[in-house]
Amino acid sequence: MPVIRRDSTPPALVVKYYLYEATATYGFFWPVFTLFLLSRDLTFAQIGLLGSLSAAASVLGEIPTGYVADRLGRRVALALGSALLSVSLVGHVVARGFPAFAALWVLWGAGRAFRSGSADAWLYDALEDRLDAADAFTRIRGRGSSVNQTVSAVSMLTAGALYAVDDRLPLVLGAVVAAAAIPVVWTFPTPETRAADAESAAGFAETLRVVRATLTAPALRRVVLYAAVVFAAVGAVDTFIQPVTTTTLGFPEAALGPLYAAFSVASAVAGYAAPRIERALSPRRALAVLPAFVAAALALPVVAPLAALPAFVAAKAGRAAVDPILGGHLNDHASAVGRATLLSAASLLYALVRVPAKPAAGALADATTPLCAVAAVGACLLFAAGLFAVSDASTGTRPQNESA
């Protein structure tokens, strides 16, 4: 079978994957989302609680939705997830009061649960079955992330201006883009291995047994738990970008679009560079070094507020580089039929850590300042990165280049 070459025209299925990544952007509304919620009389603690409710919905839905993706197909899961996200955004336009927003964020969490892991599982299977190129996953996944971030950068440039005209416009456009993902994923081919094995797939209980055994194996256990801390930390910091920029640093709201566009450009570069970072450091070392760099950057703004902007850039770029490296590591340890279930189970663990992290950081920001909360998150992340590096070294883990 043909193998993807660096200098060749991307095969059709890869182009479709890139198109899906282009529609998976939150660029129109994310730069002003916190400001939108604050304008609806929500506090930082309530906004953090919304994130926890979304994470809780993911916790309850990750395994069932992953199983749906394995049994009914990745396309079904991706389409359902995109539809739920679109409906949630439309609901924000008319919602009033914390209970209404809470219900919409539960819906948002369910949508994310359907999409989490499904795109990665489809891509890995498709590369393996149709192109004999599963080893290209990190590269294609990283470039897909770059496509997503590039589209996000362009759309984010308009977010502040749209918000100034009508604070509902960014959400309406976000809903339209989320819905546009549905016809895209319906063109995805079904990997031959998944289609052939679906009929003989294990039952739900047996699938859970296999997933539990895989996730608790030494090769994955520490990585997944540590990744959960990394993602929770970056997610908590994201809550404070908008108030720090507009209130603490005094930038106008119109500056948020270019700022988030800069985040996306940095993330696109980081995602594109992920395979090189993986080869240079090994995946496990990269997973230790990148978050440690982010953590150090997050500690600076508490004494030098202007350092918050490069710190936020570092957080976004670090997350973008970690995503494809971590995804490749998990996929390498997953069987084809249970791949989406395994990835959803990992996402469930990530969500479990996010549940207390966001409201805790929000409460700390309410009691002190957003910059103090950012520094505290950075300190926790630095401790986790150090613990992960030491535990890996003490067990003599080989570089993931070879096996992991």
Quick tags:
404 residues; mainly alpha; Growth Hormone, Chain: A; 18 helices; 78% helix; globular; disordered N terminus; disordered C terminus; MFS_trans_sf
Helical residues, percent: over 70%
Low-pLDDT residue spans: 1-9, 193-202, 397-404
Biggest beta-sheet profile: none
CATH class designation: Mainly Alpha
Radius of gyration: 20 Å
Mean pLDDT: 79
As for the CATH topology, it is Growth Hormone, Chain: A
Q: Given the helix and strand composition, which structural class is it?
A: mainly alpha
List the domain count as a whole number: 1
The CATH fourth-level homologous superfamily = MFS general substrate transporter like domains
* Number of helices, where a helix is a run of at least 4 consecutive DSSP H or I residues: 18
Structure description:
The protein has one domain: Growth Hormone, Chain: A (Up-down Bundle), CATH 1.20.1250.20. Helix content is 78%, strand content 0%. The chain has helices at residues 12-23, 33-39, 44-72, 74-94, 98-115, 118-130, 137-156, 159-165, 169-185, 192-198, 204-215, 218-238, 241-248, 256-281, 283-299, 308-332, 339-367, 370-394. The protein is globular. It is a multi-pass membrane protein. The chain crosses the membrane at residues 17-37, 44-63, 83-108, 171-188, 223-242, 254-274, 286-313, 364-390. It is found in: Membrane.
Fold blueprint:
Blueprint: H1 12-23, H2 33-39, H3 44-72, H4 74-94, H5 98-115, H6 118-130, H7 137-156, H8 159-165, H9 169-185, H10 192-198, H11 204-215, H12 218-238, H13 241-248, H14 256-281, H15 283-299, H16 308-332, H17 339-367, H18 370-394
Helix pairs in contact: 1-7, 1-9, 3-4, 3-5, 3-17, 4-5, 4-6, 4-9, 6-17, 7-14, 7-16, 11-17, 12-16, 12-17, 12-18, 14-15, 14-16, 15-16, 15-18, 17-18
